[in-house]
Specification:
281 residues, alpha+beta, five-stranded antiparallel β-sheet, three-stranded antiparallel β-sheet, 36% helix, globular
Length: 281
């Protein structure tokens, strides 16, 4: 089954009042497809993969220690997704913060890590990996006034899929750093977008080795007003890295949001069908 079917699924949304950007990569076969995959869009928390990639790199080189204590400051605390703002403790380790960022997209943990490594380092790792248009513009904020960037992050489906591809191939910065990022992604609790209609076991052991029957998923999602994004890998007979980003005018109301989610899930179902079958030839 060709990845052209994934592009066809994405194009089924062409009549909807939204942009649906899709990129998919056959990790081993090399086949790629994209629909609006070079369009720069807000990507919300899917961009946290870039921050986690830098944290993983530093853990690998010893620039950071996994058990290094990090005090969560008042300036780090943000509403939205996460648990830390509800916790009584203020002291956590680097690895604690990474797990929280990956698993529940914790905004407070994200801000603490971003303060620790600096936004400039995420720009540097993006450049090194050829992710020219994936950018963290700011920390996560509850309110965005005129004196701060209008969104947390922007990027393209192509760059998000490329980052996942690097992690799966072990070429992110080192095999160990790549594997660590995938392990964090595997802990993600939000499977409501691309994996929602995919028959998979989110807790099966052995990732990233394929199951004899069934699929495995590791991903990172992003949710904001007018934005839904999902980047990850589906492991079956084939390993497919993907990124799907939907963007629309929030003034169009909840019906457009529902249409965006349905379109993303339709792409996910098609990705899963492709992952189950080996490429022809």
């Amino acid at each position: 089954m060709s990845l052209a079917q994934v592009a066809a699924a994405a194009r089924r949304s062409a009549t909807l009042p939204l942009t649906l950007a899709v990129a998919a990569v056959d990790i081993d076969g090399g086949e790629t497809v994209g629909v609006d995959d070079r369009t720069v869009l807000p990507v919300a928390s899917a961009s946290k993969l870039l921050l986690l990639a830098e944290v993983s790199r530093r853990l690998d080189t010893g620039e950071l220690l996994a058990d290094r204590p990090v005090e969560v400051l008042d300036e780090d605390v943000a509403d939205g997704t996460g648990l830390l703002r509800r916790m009584s403790r203020r002291g956590w380790t680097v690895e604690d913060l990474a797990w929280l960022t990956a698993s529940v997209s914790d905004n407070t943990a994200t801000n603490a890590l971003l303060r620790l490594v600096g936004r400039e380092s995420t720009a540097r790792v993006a450049k090194e990996l050829g992710l020219d248009r994936l950018t963290l513009h700011d920390k996560v904020r509850d309110i965005r006034g005129p004196d701060v960037p209008p969104v947390f992050a922007t990027g393209t489906a192509r760059d998000l899929a490329r980052l996942v591809t690097h992690a799966v191939r072990g070429t992110m910065s080192s095999p160990a750093a790549s594997a660590r990022l995938l392990e964090w992604m595997r802990a993600n609790t939000d499977h409501g977008l691309v994996p929602a209609l995919v028959d998979h076991d989110p807790y099966a052991a052995g990732f990233p080795n394929p199951l004899t029957d069934g699929l495995l998923v590791a991903n990172k999602t992003g949710t904001d007003t007018g934005v839904r994004a999902d980047a990850g890998v589906i492991v079956g007979a084939r390993r497919l890295a993907y990124a799907v980003v939907a963007h629309w005018d929030p003034a169009l109301g909840p019906s457009t949001q529902r249409a965006a989610v349905h379109a993303i899930r339709d792409v996910g179902r098609t990705l899963a069908a492709c992952a189950r079958r080996r490429a022809a030839g």
